[in-house]
Specification:
The protein contains 10 helices and 8 strands. It is α/β, with parallel strands linked by helices and 273 residues long. The protein has a domain at 48-122.
Length: 273
Amino acid sequence: MSTTLLHPNEIALELTGRPYTSWSAITTYQACPLRYAFRYIENMLEPTVSASLAFGSAFHSAAEHHYRELLEGRPTPSLDALLSAYNDAWHAHDDKLIQFGKDDDRSTLHDLASRMLRAFQASEIANPQGTIIGIEEELNGELVAGVPDLLARVDLLVDAGDCLVVTDVKTARSRWSQEQARESAGQLLLYHELAKPLAEGRPIRLQFAVATKLKNPDVHLYEVQADPQQIERMKRIVERVWSAIEARIFYPSPSPMQCPGCPYREECRTWAG
C-alpha cells in the first residue's frame, strides 16, 4: 500500500487554510506558540486591536499612497493627502475595539501621524534614487526544502541601476540602535532570497526605514548586510519553527512584554493543553 506524501504547501493549507507561511507567522510562533495556534490554526478573530498596530498599519497606508503617486508619475502628494490615506486606513478599525495606551486616543495619534508624515516627506526615503518597481509587492517562493513557500510583502522595491533596493518601513518609539537593526535583520535576509529573480544577478541592498514616534520625529535608514551565513542561519530557524508547527507543538509563553497587549489573554488563561 503506497502512501502519498503531501507537499509542504498542502500541509500548510490543511493546517492554516493558507498554502504558504510568512514572516509574521514565523515570528508569532517564536513569540508565543499558543498565540500562533489561536490565530493561524484555530483562526480566532482577535477581539481587540492594539492602537500601536492600527497606527503602524495606517502610517504604512499613507507611505504606500505617497509611493504610488510617484510610481504613476504624479506630483508628490501633500501632507493633507497623506493624512487622508492615514485616516481611511484608521477607519478600517472599529474604535471600540482598539486598545489605546496611557494618554493616547485617536486625536493624539492623529497629531503624531501628522508630525511623522512631515518627517517622512523630508527624509531621503521619500524620494528614492532610482525607479520604483514595486510597492507592497508580494514575493513568494520556496526557501527551504520541506517548508511551505514563504510569502513576503515588500514595502518598497527600487531599481537603482547597479542594484535592487529592498526597503521595509517600520514605526518605532525611538531610534533603533545598531543592535536592534541586527536583531530585526532576519526578515530582510529572507526577503533577499525571494528578490533574487528580480535582481537578475545584480547585488541586492537591504534597508529598514524607521520612522520614530518622538515629539520631533525623524526617519532613519539602517542597512542590512546580506551575509550568506546569516541567511543560512535564518533558513534553519524557519525550518525548525515549521517542524514544530507541523508537529502541533503549541504552548503558552508568558512574557511581561507580550502578554499585556495580546488579544487572546482570556483564551490563554482557560487553555488546558
